[in-house]
Structures are given as C-alpha cells and as structure tokens.
Amino acid sequence: METQTVSLPPVNILADMALLRPEIAMALGVMALLMFGVFNGNRPARTVSTLATFLLLGVAGYVIATWGNPGLAFGGSFVVDSFASFAKVLVLVGSALAIVMARGFMRSERLERFEFPILIVISTLGMMMMISANDLISLYMGIELQSLALYVLAAYNRDSQRSTEAGLKYFVLGALSSGLLLYGCSLIYGFTGTTNFTVLGDVVGQGGNVGLTIGLTFLLAGLVFKISAVPFHMWTPDVYEGAPTPVTAFFAAAPKVAAFALILRLLHNPMMPLVAEWRQIIIFVSMASMALGAFAAIGQNNIKRLMAYSTIGHMGFGLVGLAAGSEAGIKGVLLYMAIYMITNIGVFVVILSMRRREGMVEHLSDLSGLSRTHPFMAFALAMFMFSLAGIPPLAGFFAKFYVFVPAVQAGLWPLAVFGVLTSVVSAFYYIRIVKIMYFDDPAPAFEGVAGTQMRLILTGTATAVLMFAFIAGPVGELATQAAASLLN
Known about the structure:
The chain is mainly α. 75% of the residues lie in helices and 2% in strands. The chain is built from 21 helices and 4 strands. The protein has helices spanning 13-19, 21-40, 45-65, 82-108, 115-131, 136-154, 161-192, 197-205, 210-226, 236-242, 245-251, 254-268, 275-296, 303-324, 327-352, 370-373, 375-389, 395-409, 413-439, 452-466, 468-487, and strands at 71-73, 78-80, 355-356, 359-360. The strands form 2 sheets. Strands 1-2 form a two-stranded antiparallel ribbon.
C-alpha cells in the first residue's frame, strides 16, 4: 500500500498553543495544586479539592465559550471541533462531580489526602488528550496519561487489601491492553507508513489489506479494555468492588465517555473505509457485552459489583449506535453516554450515602425498606434503576432509542432486537432493587445523604433523568452538531 501526499497544516507554535488552552490550563493548574499540597502537607486537602473542582468547571466553561471554533494543531496530531467540545464538557463535569462526591467519604474513612483530586485532574487531562487525538502517537500518550493516574486511584486506600488487589489487577491487565494497542498501532503504521489520522484516512481509502485489518483488531482490543466491554471486561467487577467507592463512581463516569469518544473518532475518520471489517468486531463485542451484563448481574448481592456488570451491559448498548456507522449513530452514542454518566453519578450518590455508625455497607439487603427510612433517597434510586432499565418516559428510554434506531436504519435490526431482549432481562435486577426498597421489611436506617452538595447532586441528577424529555431537543441539537463535525 502506497502512501499519498496530503497537505497538513504547518506547525505554528503560537496558534497551536492557542488551540490547547484548556489542556495547558489543566496542566499548569495541576502542577500548581501539586506544589501547594507538597509544601503544606495534608492540611490543605479540602482546599486542594475545592480548587481542583473550580479548575475543572472553569476549563469546562472555557470549552463551552469557544464551542464551534475548529482547528488542527501540531501538524494535525491534535484536533479541536464540536465533537471534542461535547465530549470534553461531559468529562470535565463528571470529574468535578466525582471530586465533590468524594469529600465526605474520604473524610469519614480518613483517606482525605491532597493527592486524590490531583490524580483525578491528571487523569482528566489525559482524557482530554484522548478526545482530541488525531494521531496514533497522541492517542497513546492520552491513554497512558489517563491510565497511570487511574492505576493509582484504584489502589488509593493502601491500607485495604481489597483496594490494593484492585489496583494491581487493573495495572496488570491495563499493561496487557496497552501492549495489544501498541502492537496494533505498529501494524497500522507498518502497512500505511503514517500515524496521522488525516493521512491514514486517505491511505486506507485506497484499499485495505489483511495486515491493516489485523492491526485495527489489536488496536480495538486495547480500546475495548478501556470501556469494560467483553472480552476485556474481567477487571471491572473486582476493581469496582475493591476500589474506594468515590473512585468507583469516577471509573463509571468520565473515563467511559473519553474512551468512547476516542473509538468514535478512530473508526469514523481514518477507518471508515474499513467499516465492513470493524463493524463485525463491534457487533460481536456489543452482543457479548449486553448478554454478560444482563445475565451475570442477576446473582450479584454487592451493589458495586452489580453496577460493574451493569456498566458492561451499557457499554454494549452504546456500541449498538457505533455499529451503525452513521451520523445518527454517532449522535446516539453521544447522547447515550451523557445520559449514562448522569444516571450513574446519581446512583453512586446513593451508594456513598449507604453509611451507618459502624461504617459503609454495600449489600443489597441493606437497602431494605429504604422508602420508609429515607423516602427521597429511595425515590431517586428507583428513578435511576428504571432509567437504567430503559423504562419510558425516563432518560434511559431515550438513550436506548437513540442507539437502536440508527442500527435499524443501517440494517442491523437483529442487533437492535437482541438489545431489546437483553434490556428485558436486565430489568429484572434493576426492578429487584426497587422491590427491596419498597416492599421488604426495613433494615437499620442509614445516616442519609450527607452535605448540601450531595443533596444538590442527587436532586439535579434525579431531575435530569425525570425531565429529560423536556430538554432532549437542545441537547440533541448539540449532539447533532458534534456528530456532523466529526464526519466533516
């Protein structure tokens, strides 16, 4: 396969740095927070947490203010467009909420150290690099920057055997996935002579070959690990259960959005000519993830493990829209991930509130009679469970609708039907939680949702899930613009 000369924008340091202002602000901010924490010990942990939250929200505000100003930086290896802006806002907001949600837990468990918010900010910076990656090298740099911080976060509670074990499992399997990803990148470079997505798309458009397809397969294997999809899901239940609950909440939100955005950019830009090849991989991964998520969660009694299998299933649903290979499919995936992130944040606010005087509890039976001891918490969790099950008119119903319709339009109706059937199966364990809260005898009461900030997050996420039908139009329009910018 011969390479084709494609004109890329010349390197202009000042112009390129201007496009990277959000990332530069994040990098400078996290270095300043790190120095502040190092020179003051753990005493300013709450101050660092607050400043990190404002940093994330401030960068999100800047991304929104500069929405729709596209550009390429550093020879086309970094891209800014509406698609990147949409995904970055989700990631930044999700990370900021994760820091806020962690404060009470970390204080009560005596884990309040200034490194926690700094690690989240570093990981978020890596996610932003992933979302804007337009080159295999920048793709790998973003993934590793995100992953190295996540490995430490998984083992953050160093005095807990479960947390240490979770971090070690995640690190070992993450190293394996990185090896597969790098091998795929090397094969793609070897058969095309380029790592830049723009050039790669033109070269692939001339015709593919077996070597390129194998390289893409290895690359997708590494990326599928990041979204916890089958067959690279094995780390998810153990890490979700073993890691501190705020870390689990973070894992279930922002990193999934960033990884999906990266996969969308890779497959719909340089690899779109190979849609017939990669669609088969995506369909298999999607069906296997939906099936495992639906059946494996039925026997779970630990709510964090149940949410891990729920995550695996929902990644499969998101891949249904990806398999469509169309602008409507991209829009569906973006909306699906936005709704999934909001719903999971709400669920983990409730999980973080499952505290009694003797400590945190995670068993489903501990939710017994929650409707009588904490009615609003029970109502909110019931709405989240119905939404995850895809019951109308909640947000989760629209999320699945947005990914199933493009799949049917693309002729993938068996995949959509399979998704509907697995949704019915998974509804069992979601409705089981509602039954435990409303019909079982009350267990000892929790202390409740602690703090005004946690109550606001719970109220806001529950309202968004309930009232999504009224805001679907504006949010859908933003997702449409993002999808169009990715294809253009």
